[in-house]
Design brief:
Blueprint: H1 4-17, E1 31-32, E2 36-40, E3 51-52, E4 59-63, E5 68-69, E6 83-91, E7 96-104, E8 111-119, H2 124-134, E9 139-142, H3 151-159, E10 163-166, H4 179-197, E11 203-204, H5 213-219, E12 223-224, E13 228-229, H6 232-235, H7 238-247, E14 254-258, H8 262-277, E15 281-283, H9 285-289, H10 296-299, E16 303-304
Parallel strand pairs: 2-7, 8-9, 8-14, 8-15, 9-10, 10-11, 12-16, 13-14
Antiparallel strand pairs: 1-3, 4-5, 4-6, 6-7
The protein binds zinc ion.
Length: 312
């Protein structure tokens, strides 16, 4: 076995040969992006959520509950206590800033599930860019016969943490066709989506919200309906879509929109610009429906419209 000294000498030699491994003399001074931030219990926040251009090797964090840490790019705000605190950021060059951080407990998060039906369509990429910029997670209820047309969009949905739901194969009203046909529509839809997405669907939504109890159980995943219907398909006006989303964004609500209309895409952006700034957290259907600790298995077979919980 080689001694510790051997490795120390090796490391020193490496630094002499490659001085780039040493903390740089030209360390970049950081810039504060947000001096007041809200973070939610159980979520990871990378440091570049609050600062940019930072040299993380040079930085220190001190929170008002006296914990000290050297931040990393990937998640320095973990471990803060629930409530308000001040985090002091400093670097070795003497730059120093104070950031007000509000840590919100899981039970107190104002959560809303935005659900997008009838896609994927030609606006999916634009929506995904927008959701990414806002750290918003949504649920896509997709039509099995359309997923093959937009494989890149579907892959991004998966990679970026959105929930993949089935809206059946051909959007037939399942209570108006024979039971074996209905079950085939459900099965084929889920299979087509899973083939493109590479992951199993975790929720489903029957077209027009119509399903029998047998179908809901056979689906094997929760049947997610909605309690806020924006009727976006009817009037196709972005201002009205925005208004319906804003007015419908009460805690625990499930909002229905259709991703295939340009006016809906514009309405979503207008509404979420405001709601995200107000602290509303957009989460997937499963995150919302299990927020009180209900296991997913218990949700199967039920008609799920929303998830309200009593707040302190
Ligand atoms: Zn639909």
């Amino acid at each position: 076995m080689r001694s510790k000294l051997f490795y120390m000498l090796l490391a020193t030699a490496a630094l002499l040969i490659c001085p780039g491994l040493l903390p740089s003399e030209e360390a970049r001074a950081y810039t504060v992006k947000n001096s007041k931030v809200t973070i939610y219990e159980g979520e990871t926040y990378p440091m570049d959520f609050i600062v940019s251009d930072a040299d993380y090797m040079e930085m220190r964090l001190l929170s008002s509950d006296r914990t000290v840490s050297t931040p990393t790019k990937d998640g320095a705000l973990l471990g803060l206590k629930i409530g308000d605190c001040v985090v002091t950021i400093s670097d070795r060059k003497g730059k120093r800033d104070e950031i007000e951080v509000k840590v919100v407990s899981k039970a107190d998060i104002h959560m809303v599930a935005l659900t997008l039906d009838d896609g994927p369509g030609s606006h999916a990429m634009e929506l995904l860019d927008y959701f990414d910029s806002r750290n918003v997670k949504v649920t896509f209820f997709m039509i099995g016969s359309d997923v093959g047309k937009y494989p890149k969009s579907v892959q991004r949905m998966v990679d970026e943490g959105h929930e993949i739901g089935s809206h059946t194969m051909n959007h037939k009203q399942l209570t108006a066709v024979k039971e074996d046909r209905a079950l085939a529509e459900m099965e084929e839809g889920a299979k087509a989506i899973e083939e493109v997405a590479g992951v199993p669907v975790t929720v489903w939504r029957p077209p027009y919200g119509d399903s029998t109890e047998e179908q809901r159980i056979a689906a094997g995943v929760p049947t997610v309906l909605w309690n806020i219907d924006t009727l976006d398909w009817k009037y196709k006006k972005s201002d009205r879509v925005a208004k319906e989303i804003i007015n419908g964004a009460g805690d625990g609500n499930i909002i229905l929109v259709h991703e295939i209309y340009k006016t809906t895409v514009e309405g979503i952006k207008k509404a979420l610009d405001k709601l995200c700034a107000d602290g509303v957290r957009f989460v997937t259907s499963t995150t919302l429906l299990t927020r009180d600790g209900t296991p997913v298995e218990e949700l199967i077979g039920q008609k799920l419209f929303s998830k309200k919980i009593k707040k302190k």
